[in-house]
Amino acid sequence: MSVSLVFAPDTLVRFKGGRILVHTTTSPMPAFESDNPMLIGWLCQFARPTQPDTAIGALQPENRPMVTQVIGYLRQSGALQEVGPSAAPAGDTEAEGRIKNHLQLLARSLYDTSCDLLGLGPQADAALLERTGIGVERRLMALLAATDGLRSELNSLRQPHLKAQLAALRVRPGDRELKLHIGCGTGHLEDWVNIDVHPAPLAMNVLWGLPFADGSVRYVFVSHFLEHLFFPRDVMPFLAEIRRVLAPGGVARLVVPDIGQCIDAYVNADADFYSNRRETWPWWPANPTRLEDFLAYAGAGAEPAHLFESHKYGYDFETLSKILTAAGLERVERSGFLESAHPALRVDDVSAVAKAKYRDRYYSLFAEAQRPT
What we know:
The chain has 373 residues and is an alpha/beta fold.
């Protein structure tokens, strides 16, 4: 049986000097060129998986050799690719690394492009329009269409992805009294649903919303995760989701970097406080100023390419209490390491960051809040 072919996602069709060009963004081969719009129209069927033998067989015999050559060239250049199982099977860490690298480059590139366009102002649109016939706005619309198309496809994967994982974890739709550990990293809690990005037991983006019924959760533990979300755009919907899934009287325990403590150390010129970080975390940058250290920890100037990994915001207890209350939780109380009125929530030691100390003090701020009864 003939293989099916489809246009690669980075294939471009351009028009230049009365000719039609088909090429990819990555191939070193020259673009395929034609002044035959009927041929280009025929090739458009490969926008979806198509068997070339069947498609070529439907042509007049005298046209088949030429079209076969065109298909061969487009395959060689990478503009047409075979449809089939992924060349990178699940669990291929090299492929995952490449994808993450592409994401980092894309995030940084989008930011840099934005800065360039703001710097050039209207001149960019006018110059590109004169030079190529296509201005900035149309190019941006093409980028948005490409990313929206990819996001739409990814969105269609969410429910089956979550359903399969929840089934593997034996979590059923009607289950109650669940315990959620959100932002688990490699520290998994037994008898809890451990949630994080891949490869967590329940791998997901929490900004999708939590895949649990209203009032189905007794406890939520979130350690050193909240500061990785943009505030308030992503933080407030996330906290609203926690309130939604908590049962009346259910409790959420949150652990975040104690930015109030960092401010005190900065104001009091406590150099030991900052130098001790490098003893606790060997990867900590060497010799930053106290201000560099504090602002980076508080999320100022988050690097776009660091994605979820960078801090986006900092919290003291006053701010954390305010946003938890705004999310509809009550009885917000400051806590301490492994100090909770609820034995099930004395789990801070599962988090390497939560148990990090400076002398007799922990770097973290611990707080609990509950859904109103």
